[in-house]
Structure formats: structure tokens, C-alpha cells
Design goal:
By secondary structure, the protein is an all-beta fold. Helix content is 0%, strand content 52%. The strands form 2 sheets. Strands 2, 4, 5, 6, 9, 10 and 11 form a 7-stranded mixed sheet that branches. A hairpin with a 4-residue loop joins strand 7 and strand 8.
Amino acid sequence: QGKLVESGGGLVQSGGSLRLTCAASGRTSSSYAMGWFRQAPGKEREFVAAFSWSPSTTYYADSVKGRFIISRDNAKNTVYLQMNSLKPEDTAVYYCAARTTYSSGSYYRAANYNYWGQGTQVTVSS
């Protein structure tokens, strides 16, 4: 079994920054890929960012490219999402996800991740 626990969400003004943290344990510590998704009220869950180990590649949604950075600390089994220049439209519950089975499926699709955290709320005020 595995577990993902997110933290770091909160309320921030437009233009501000937040860093989300995802602590992986158990099986999720050796994932093929990990990512961040978000879901705003009344909307579908959408891809934000992800990285794969082999090949070592990062992926970003167009809406966050240049503002968000996904990174990892292998020693701590932790994934981060640094969010800069936040906008009110970034307001959502942010979820950490892990893919622990090999798949050639898109990193952008939520269905291709088999472990999820409980989510952390990010609210950006205008």
C-alpha cells in the first residue's frame, strides 16, 4: 500500500506565492511518475504538473507554465509544487497523484494515476 499527504495550501493574495508539499510513503515512494492536479468548484479535475523518472521529464499545463515549478526530494520522498504569480483562477483543491504501475498513458490524464492524496485548498484573493 501507499499513501500521499499534501500540505501547504492556504489563502494568498493575487500575485503571491505558495509551496505545496506531497509526502509519499509505502509503495508511492517508488512511483514511475508523480503529478499535481486541481479541481475548482463545479469543474472537472485538471492537470497541473507532473514529472516522470524515466525519462526524467517534467510536464506542465499551459495555464501554469512559467509560474509553477514541480520538484522532488528523493531522500525525503517528497514532491513540491512551487506556485508563483498566483491568480484568482488558480483557486482550487490541489491533489497530489502517483503512478506506481508502468504505463504508456498520458501524464496529463488523471485516470493514469492510481494513488491520490486527500487534497489541500488553495485560495487566491483578488
